[in-house]
Amino acid sequence: MKYQKIGSIKYRHRFNFLFLCLSIIILSGCAQNKPDPRIDFLQSKTGVLEKRIVELENQTRINSLKQTNELEAYKKEISAKLSNARKSQRFFIKELDQLKNDIQTITAENEKTLQKTHINQLKLKSVDKKIGDLIISMDEIKSFFDDNLNISSGSKATETDEFEIFKKAHLLYKKRQLNNSQKLFKLYRQKAPNTEYTDDALYYTAYIHFLQKQYEQAILHFFELNKQYPESNWSNDAKYWLAISLERTEDLGGAKDIYVELEQLPPSNPIHHKAKRRLEELQTTN
């Protein structure tokens, strides 16, 4: 369109120039009062140029109008596309906001559920601890009365010289005369290596080592008890004190392995709860 306007201006300048020349010639002719053939020639050429200029101006207007219409149509098309894009954008923004709200709602509900679950777990843990404390207390009471039983009245009792050694050793143990008691338990094992009380004597020997903080000796005797008498009534107790002794000698891995094994015992067994607590404490501190 810019170039067409420039062309139109050029044509108009030419026309004005030709008109000026023609006027000069006509005036010159009038002054001489003589007809000049060149004037007719110039007039004919001027007419042709005028027609050409008019045609060009008309064509320019037509092209300008066409381009204007095309530009308007293009503007409308772009405007429609932008409008649709804005509608789509608003739709997606709305959907995104809804999705964010849903996520926040779900997250809040999950947090509430997790809090309730955590509270319930704490309650169950508290109940489990109370049950464990009760079972351990009952076991300690039982152990107290067992230590004060008259061994000779038991079903295992047989009145022999060797058994008298065992009874005396047990009596000294209850009085906490540990060194003398341990000597007699060892003597009993030498004189009666295969009796019903041999595993009892070995257990007390190992436990006295533990009470005297002789953990290496305690480990050897507890291990010997579990190896030689796996069906002994002292087996689980020996494993527990073996694990404690391993802890005291910094063998935490060995202690954990034993606690994991003892944790498989029924919950009614006090050692189950003792082992579980020791394992939890080791896992927390390490």
Can you describe what's shown?
It is built from nine helices and no strands. The protein is mainly α. It has two domains: 2-91; 149-285, Tetratricopeptide repeat domain (Serine Threonine Protein Phosphatase 5, Tetratricopeptide repeat). α3 (161-174) packs antiparallel against α4 (178-191), α6 packs antiparallel against α7 and α7 packs antiparallel against α8 (252-262). The longest helix is centred in the N-terminal third of the chain and has 111 residues, at 37-147. The chain starts with a helix and ends with a helix.
- What name does CATH use for the topology of the largest domain? Serine Threonine Protein Phosphatase 5, Tetratricopeptide repeat
Mind telling me the CATH superfamily name of the largest domain?
Tetratricopeptide repeat domain
Low-confidence stretches: 136-142, 152-158
CATH architecture level-2 label of the largest domain: Alpha Horseshoe
Mean pLDDT score: 78
The tally of strands reads 0
General shape: rod-shaped
Tell me the strand percentage band.
under 5%
Count of alpha and pi helical runs: 9
Q: Tell me the series of helices and strands, N- to C-terminal.
A: HHHHHHHHH
Share of residues in helices? over 70%
Number of domains: 2
Work out the oligomeric state of the chains in this entry: single chain
Amino- and carboxy-terminal Cα gap: 85 Å
Judged by helices, strands and strand pairing, the structural class is mainly alpha
Name the CATH class of the largest domain: Mainly Alpha
